[in-house]
Structure formats: structure tokens, C-alpha cells
Design brief:
By secondary structure, this protein is of the alpha+beta class. It has helices at about 5-25, 25-35, 40-45, 55-80, and strands at about 85-90, 105, 120, 125-135, 140, 150-155, 160-165, 170-175, 185-190, 200-205, 215-220, 230-235. It has four helices and twelve strands; from the N terminus they run H-H-H-H-E-E-E-E-E-E-E-E-E-E-E-E.
């Protein structure tokens, strides 16, 4: 070996040693050095975890799906209703941008055992009944619908009345002799509906327009537009 070539060989050996050191002990720098020598498509595949662009897209899609499932589970956990032998849990479809209170759709239908007329509750409180059923979803009429009617009983004395729906539901046809008072609980008492489901609380009482009966306005422990999960009673 000529003296002139010896320094070049030493320099080359030193560069190789530095390269190996960076690749093994300093991966971030080693990655950059390897990027200089590797074809761009190879490095792209490595950046995608050694797979193809299609594989990376599949992973992104799977992640989005898992995030959606997690969001649904968190909603259910927050509102706590769970299916039981006597009920079916269902999610309420979004009504955005509309702010309807009279009805909503749920993601359970005849395939899940939902039947027309079934009582629908939220947190143990009666909110309405199923009116139409399809295979995978159903329509729920709430107590805020103008056409809603339900026989009820009021307070510890169990005084009869007729829940009349609307933007401001009230109980009509209360006998004048019934000592109904504010804060009395109103419960379901209609045939075909689970007995004594709480509905709301009397907020004020007064005389009907025809002066033949008493009637009571109600307050409710929920905002119907914020409901995201409900329980639907199963048929016998």
C-alpha cells in the first residue's frame, strides 16, 4: 500500500465507524443518513411502519372507527341506562339543526324487540312512547307532543288526571275535590304502560277554562333535547 493511499483508507474507515455508531446508538441521526442513500419509495414505506400506503389508510380508518365506538360508550356510561330483561337500550339520533321536542328517532327497532306503544324512559323517568317501528330504528312520541295523552295519578293520594302534551305539558281533568299541591309527583296509570313510572312534578295548580276541573302545570327533571340514550320497555 502506498503512503499516499493510507490516509484515504484511514479516513474512509473513520467515516464508516461514525456511520455505524449513529445508526446503532443515535437512531434519529442514523435515520437521516440512511435517507440520503435509500430510494424515496423505500423510506416512505418505512415511515408507514414498513407497510404500503393502503395499509396506513386502513389503520387510520380503524382508528376512527374505534374512536366513534369509544364516544358512544362514554355517552352510555355518562347516562347509565343499560339493557335488562324488561328493557332495550337505544341511542337517540341527533336532531341538529332542528330543536324538536315532540319526537325523536332511536337506533333500535323490531329486530331488537321494539314494539309500537312501548314506554320510553330516561333515567327512570317516563318521556314518551314508541309510535312507529322499522327494522333497525323507531320513532318516539314525547310528552311534549300536542297530541300526547296519558292517564296519570298525582301525589300520595293517587288522584286521577289526564296528562296533556304540548310545549308546556299539564295534567287536566283533576277533580276539584282532589287536594293536589305543588311538588306532588305525577306517575303513569294508563293500561298498556308500566304502572307508576314517574313523569314530572306539579309546579302550580289552577282551575280549567270551563271551571269544571282543576289542572296542574308540570316541571321535568330533564331537557328532552339533551337526551342521548333511553330505555324502551319490552312487551310481555
Amino acid at each position: 500500500m502506498t503512503p499516499e493511499r493510507r490516509p484515504n483508507i484511514i479516513l474512509l474507515g473513520a467515516l464508516i465507524a461514525v456511520f455505524l455508531f449513529l445508526v446503532i446508538f443515535e437512531p434519529s441521526y442514523g435515520w437521516k443518513i440512511r435517507a440520503w442513500f435509500a430510494p424515496s419509495n423505500v423510506m416512505q414505506g418505512a415511515a408507514n411502519g414498513g407497510g404500503s400506503a393502503t395499509g396506513a389508510n386502513d389503520i387510520l380508518i380503524e382508528n376512527e372507527s374505534l374512536k366513534a365506538e369509544l364516544a358512544e360508550l362514554q355517552t352510555v356510561e355518562a347516562e347509565l341506562p343499560t339493557s335488562s330483561a324488561n328493557s332495550i337500550r337505544a341511542m337517540v339520533y341527533s336532531r341538529y339543526p332542528f330543536d324538536f321536542k315532540n319526537e325523536f328517532l332511536v337506533n333500535a327497532g323490531s329486530a331488537n324487540g321494539v314494539a309500537a306503544g312501548a314506554a320510553v324512559t330516561y333515567g327512570g323517568v317516563y318521556v314518551g312512547r314508541v309510535t312507529q317501528v322499522w327494522s333497525d330504528y323507531a320513532e318516539v312520541q314525547t310528552v311534549f307532543d300536542n297530541n300526547f295523552k296519558l292517564a296519570v295519578r298525582i301525589g300520595p293520594g293517587g288522584y286521577d288526571g289526564l296528562l296533556t302534551g304540548g310545549s308546556y305539558p299539564y295534567v287536566a281533568s283533576i277533580a276539584k275535590s282532589s287536594p293536589v299541591a305543588a311538588n306532588d309527583i305525577v306517575v303513569s296509570a294508563a293500561s298498556g304502560t308500566p304502572y307508576a313510572l314517574p313523569i314530572g312534578e306539579v309546579s302550580a295548580t289552577g282551575t280549567s277554562p270551563d271551571n269544571l276541573f282543576e289542572q296542574a302545570t308540570l316541571s321535568f327533571p330533564y331537557d328532552v333535547n339533551q337526551i342521548e340514550t333511553v330505555l324502551i320497555a319490552k312487551g310481555s
